[in-house]
Amino acid sequence: MKKVMYWLIGEKAGRTIVGTYNWLWGIPVESGGKVAVAVAEESLQSMQESVQRLAEAVAIQDASYQRAKQKYDAKIKEIELLNRQVQTAQNLGNELAARQTMARLIQTEQILPNLKTVIQQAEQAVNLSKMKLNRERTRLEACKSDMQNLKDLAEVNEALATINNVNNEFDIGSAKNQFEAAKSAVENRNLRTNALVAISEDPNAIVTAELEQMTLDDEVTRRLQQAKPSDI
Fold first, then answer.
1. What angle do CA 167, 34, 4 make, to 5 degrees?
2. Residue 49: CB partners within 8 Å, gap ≥ 6?
3. Spatial distance between the Cα atoms of 25 and 60, rounded to a whole number of angstroms
4. Which of 20, 50, 89, 90 could disulfide-link to 94, CB 3.0 to 4.6 Å?
């Protein structure tokens, strides 16, 4: 399905749609998580396929250039051969053969400049294509190295996220704050209760109770004095 999409709308647009699809499921590439790594791997695979197609195209181009160069080299050798044949015909006094061979020689020489130009252009195009292929291969190797680094970094990010979640889940500082708040609430309630008890007591009853206690203390003292044995 992915390859069909890439074929229909192009690789760049296809990768964009795949990234948007992931985003619609709540896992955007920008989150930098597993989805981002998956998209990077997908892009790397597309790059590898593109470089492979480019390599195949360069191979075809180079093969065509080599065939054209072989034809050019063959024409050079043909001209050399025709020159020798013309010389031989003249040496033998065969004027007709010399003229016919010279005509073929001239015709061959006339197409040689155009053929040479085509060969030079083809050679230049092949060299440029090979340079581009080398650049793309170098870039691909760099991306492969970056891909491994991305995987390692993503694993580190996952580990840090897990640690952060654990720290948040077992936040002792937050629990201590809650404990202090509960302690303060209990102490405040105790103070309020004591204050309410103090306010609710009758002042006259307190004074009466204190007088009764004093009277009782005096009576106890007096009775203890009486209970002492008298001196004989």
1. 165
2. none
3. 44
4. 89
Q: Residues 53, 47: contact at Cβ < 8 Å?
A: no
Q: How large is the angle between the packed helices 2-9 and 11-24, nearest 10 degrees?
A: 130
* Burial classification of residue 133, based on how many CB atoms lie within 10 Å of its CB (0-12 exposed, 13-18 middle, 19 or more buried): middle
Among 68, 189, 183, 170, which residue's Cα sits nearest to residue 117? 68
Closest CA to 47 of 157, 177, 136: 136
Q: What is the pLDDT of residues 140-179, one digit of tens each?
A: 888 888 777 777 777 777 767 776 666 666 555 566 677 7
Rounded CA-CA distance 144/155 in Å is 17
Angle at 61 between CA 57 and CA 63, to 5 degrees: 115
Please give the model's pTM, rounded to 2 decimal places. 0.53
